[in-house]
Amino acid sequence: MATVTVVPEGDSSAAESGAAFSDIHSAGWDESQLRKYPFQCRPIPRLSQNDPRAEILINNEEPVVLTDTSLVCPALKWDLSYLQENIGNGDFSVYIAQNHKFLYYDEKKMANFENFIPQSQRVEMKFSEFVSRMHQAEQSGGRERVYLQQTLNDTVGRKIVMDFLGFNWNWINKQQAKRNWGQLTSNLLLIGMEGNVTPAHYDEQQNFFAQIKGYKRCILFPPDQFDCLYPYPVHHPCDRQSQVDFENPDCVKFPNFKNVFGYEAVVGPGDVLYIPMYWWHHIESLLNGGVTITVNFWYKGAPTPKRIEYPLKAHQKVAIMRNIEKMLGEALGDPHEVGPLLNMMIKGRYDQNLS
Ligand SMILES: O=C(O)CCC(=O)C(=O)O
Question: Which residues are in the JmjC domain (predicted)?
Answer without folding.
Answer: 144-314
